[in-house]
Amino acid sequence: MSPDTPPVWPISFQDVLAARDRIRPFLPATPLRSYAPLDGAVGRGIRVLVKHENHNPTNSFKARNGLALLSALPEEARRRGVVAATRGNHGLGLAWAGSLLGAPVTICVPAGNNLEKNEAMRGYRVELIEQGRDYGSPTRPTTRW
What we know:
Blueprint: H1 13-23, E1 32-34, H2 36-42, E2 49-51, H3 62-72, H4 75-80, E3 82-85, H5 89-101, E4 105-109, H6 115-122, E5 127-130
Parallel strand pairs: 3-4, 4-5
Antiparallel strand pairs: 1-2
């Protein structure tokens, strides 16, 4: 990070609104549903609305995270791509977003990771590196970038 680059934390409410505007064209509104048994369990006449992020393209809210991140990168950085260590949903969100925006994505997972998650990430043409025994181990290959 150069001295001219502003810090990324903490994010402001304006940052959240900007991310919303960047991802809106790619994601439909998430359905909200109420469930009488849940309302009953909470009681006091309170109606609970459940936001079904499982209706997103990757079946998780992580599609929003990946798209918000990649769409915020300058074009040059996006062309270079991103590297992440994950066991699944975060990598799947980045993979999906990378496929939409033309950004190369490398995902590092531990050996023996969930096969369905790995295949789903590969379906978006990521480079998948399977290495190490646990969550922290797959980050070691990232030092080559």
